[in-house]
Every structure is written in structure tokens, then in C-alpha cells.
Fold these 2 entries.
Entry 1:
Amino acid sequence: MSAAAAPDQRYVVTDFHIHIQPWRQLKPAVMDTMRRGKEQHVEFLLALMDDPRMLLAIMDEHGIQRVGMVNYPSPNIMGFGDDTNDFAARYAQADPLRLLPYGGVDPVTTRDAAGGVARLLELGTRVLKLHPPHQAFAANDYTRGLDALATIYRTCEDRGLPVLVHTGTSIFPGARSKYGNPMELDDVAIDFPDLRLIMAHGGRPLYMKEAFFILRRHKHVWLDLSGIPPRSLLEYFPRIEELESQLLWGTDWPSPGVESMRKNVDQFLALPLAERVKRAALETNAQRLLPAR
Ligand SMILES: [Zn+2]
């Protein structure tokens, strides 16, 4: 008998939101924040960012079928360039069914937003990530003249590329947390009705009321649960079961404070939620949004 308990395999889990990124590009102050609390593991994590076989082994051990690898350029705040998109696509080649590359176009610094989205599609990118606090814009700034942002939304709407938008604060040095309010997605959901729009983190820790309002008003907007400690999920969103068809499981691993993908799944499974809600979040909704291909 093995010492470690086998992971709960009742669900074919997609972790919609983890961070496999070219950490070697991080600005020094950002890297210091990343290191905090896991000084022991930094060398391991840096190696993980270089070697997809390490990630696949962890996924096997933790009973995780698929992961979405969040990447986006943030040259001025985090340090990531456009080549972060190529990094994700290359990494995913190790097992394209299980490793889903995400990428981005920085709406503030890009000179060719439509070309940037087209390039992501050529790379096989599954989701376009926008990070308002790390790219210094509001998610509805196209209403105030940021035309590249309208082009990104419209092109993704036309081409069927889902768009994931960070909401909530960010602890990294230089991040502009005022852009984390999910209320900005009201405009986006109205102006781009066929866009597959996903709200990351439910506005945690400041804007959960706004997040819940947007998600109830716009039933075509999805909620990526990453970044919300599972044990506190029902305190943040007491009526989460009303969002059953919109929930996407995610952990944000290995971001500060997230120990393992498995631990979060187990904490989520322990919550007093209907079995069908758990299955929708962990398994079926992600299969609907991101079918195997
Ligand atoms: Zn994240």
C-alpha cells in the first residue's frame, strides 16, 4: 500500500487557471514577491517553467486532467514580453490535450491588435487573457478611446476565442488594483454579446457584490474560481449554486498562497454544495467551453 492517499478520481478535473510562465523574464521586485513563502521551492518552480514533463507528472499525481496556462504580455509591470505567447504554445506541445496554452495582446502597447489576435490563433492559443491591473487599463476603456481594446474583443468574438479578464486586486509591485472592478465587464457583456467572456477571481477580495451582480445579469459570462480560497468560497459567494452553468474550476497555482492544485480540489469537494454543481465546475463546464481538439 502506498503511503500517499490516491487523489479523488470521481471527476475529470480541468484546472482552468494556473501560472506556467517564463518566470525568468520577471522584474526583480516581482520575482521577490513570487518567492515569498516558498524560498525552498523557487529552484523547483523555475525548473518546472522549463520542463512540461515535470508539470505532467504533478498533474498525474494530483489527479488533474487538464490545465489552462495563463500567459499575457505585461512589459511594464510584470516583465513579460509578447514571446510569453510563444512560450505557452511551445510548452503545450508536450501534451496538447492536457496543456492548454493561453496568451494575450497588450491593448495599451500593441500597434496591431487584430494581427496580435490572429497570431494567437495561429499558435493554437485557447484563451486570450487580459489583465487590467498588470496592463494598466480598465476593461471597458474602449468606451473612452482605447480602440485596440475594442479590436481585441471584436476579433475574439468573431473568431470564437474566449477572453479571460482578471478582476480583483493584485499584490505585485506596480500593479494598478483600481482596474480590478468587475463592474467594467457590464459594458463588455452588453457591447460584445457573442463574446465568450470569463471573469477571473470573482473580484476577490474587494468586489464580490459587483461580481455576483454581473454574473447574474449576464448569464453568458463565466466565473473562473481561481484565486478564491475554496474554504472561504461560500463566505464570498453564498449563492454560488445559482451560477452552476457558469462556474470554471481554477486554482492560480503556484501563485503566492496556493500550495497545490490537489489541496484546493479537496477543499472544494468538502464544501456543502450539490454534487451536480461540483461536477459542473470541475468537469463539464470547462469541457463545453474548451472541448478537446
Ligand atoms: Zn492568475
Entry 2:
Amino acid sequence: MRLKDKVALITGGARGMGAAEARLFACEGACVVVADVVVEQGVIVADHIRAKGGKASFVKLDVTSEKDWETAVEGAVRSYGKLNVLVNNAGIYRTDPLERTTLREWDEVMRINITGAFLGIKHVIPAMRRAKGGAIVNVSSTTALVASGRGSAYGASKAALLSLTRHAAVQHAADGIRVNALVPGPVDTEMIAANIRTPEGRAASIARIPMGRIASADELAYGALFLASDESSYMTGAQLVVDGGLTAQ
Ligand SMILES: NC(=O)c1ccc[n+]([C@@H]2O[C@H](COP(=O)([O-])OP(=O)(O)OC[C@H]3O[C@@H](n4cnc5c(N)ncnc54)[C@H](O)[C@@H]3O)[C@@H](O)[C@H]2O)c1
């Protein structure tokens, strides 16, 4: 088992990639804390994991709330004795082009996608130091690397997350805490459902991808698993791009 005896907190774990990561990490032996603002679906994910013999619990966490982070980290340590892994997976996607992006929308995207990850890293560091190390996985996006006709706040927030990843990695390498970024291309989840609902929308998304298809959430969960596990023990401050060749062109 690749995460035997590890305790992992996954934000945005109620659905999509976060739920896939939670299920996979539990199968690989981790005690998983599923954290999300969406309670009902999050509880179901944790219940399913336990029903299959895994260890999991749900905590309501709004990643923009410092108080929620304190409660979630304390709860994880109280329940499982330590915290080894954080996946900063929660995020929101907005597609308005720059000129039509309101300040309110810009601030909302930044608050959740980058401030949320900053707060998460800040609050897990003491617990990971006590555990003599840890692994943090920040879920970025290929929109951090290449621009698209859509969005602007989203790509900028995900690019900021890559810089935060490198700063955190350098500052905490001596603590044995590794910080890496997972960089997905399009993934078949609720987040991009509106873009790919119609055959034309799906075809347009796929046209940019050399492998000719959109990723499944499970394919990204395997990337997160590698970065969370000791298999990536010499990696920190790095970016693992999982995009079907999108940014190779
Ligand atoms: N789906 C894609 O094509 C794609 C591509 C690249 C990167 N990503 C990134 O992958 C991550 C997961 O995305 P997904 O596709 O599974 O999306 P999703 O919309 O299916 O899931 C996102 C989850 O984050 C939660 N969330 C939102 N705001 C939150 C907050 N303030 N506090 C706590 N939880 C919150 C939501 O409730 C939801 O459960 C995101 O960071 C996203 O930006 C997704």
C-alpha cells in the first residue's frame, strides 16, 4: 500500500477529482479527511470509503476561513494522531474573458484558489513538522502555463499557486515537508461540464489535446497519489503535468 499509515486531508473532496483522490488514497491505506463546503456529498464520500473498509471522515471546511482550517487540522490530529498529507484541491472555475471579469469575480477566484491554498499550507505546517515531515499537493491547471480564450482570473490564480508551491517547497525542505503541484489539463468533472455538455463543446475541448480525449478524475488522482506518497521522496517545488500532451505543443 502506497500510503500505509499516512493521514491525508483533501480539500474539495466532496466530488470530482477530490472525491477520486479520497477513494484512491483510502484504498492505498491512508486515513482520509474529506473536507468541503458541500456537506451532504462530502459525508457520502466518507461513508462509501468506510463501507469498503477504509478509514475516512468528513469535515466542513471553507478553504477561505482561517478558523475552519484550525478546526480541520486539530480534528484530523485528534482523530488520527497526526497529519502527513494535504491536497489543496478545492477550486472554482470562471470563464469570463478579462474585460468582462468583475472585481467581485476576480476576488472570489483569488480567495478560493490561491488564498485558500496559502491558508492550508500555513495551518498544516506545524502538524507536519511534528510528524517529522509531510507532503503537500497543490492542484493547479494547464491554464497557469498557457493562456486560453476563456477566463483570466482562474489562470492567474493557478499560476500564483505554482509560485506558492515553489516558495513553500524551498522554505520547508529542511522540515522534511515536500510541496509539489499537480497540473491537470481538462478533466471530466462538474467543473467543466458546461463546456463539454454539447457535442460541439466537447469536440472543441478535445481538438486541443493530442491524445484526443479529456482525462478522467481517476487519472489525475494517480498523479496526486504519486506526489503524496514516498515514491516522490526527492521531488519538491516541482510540477507534474497530466494533460494528454496539451502543453507539449
Ligand atoms: N476539471 C478540470 O478540467 C480541471 C482542470 C485543471 C485543474 N482543475 C482543478 O482541479 C481541482 C478540482 O476540480 P474538479 O474538476 O474536481 O472540480 P469540481 O467543481 O467538481 O470540485 C471542486 C470541489 O471544490 C469544492 N469547493 C469549492 N469552493 C470551496 C471552498 N471555498 N472551500 C472548500 N471546498 C470548496 C466544491 O464544493 C467541489 O466539491 C480544482 O482546483 C480545479 O481548479 C480542474
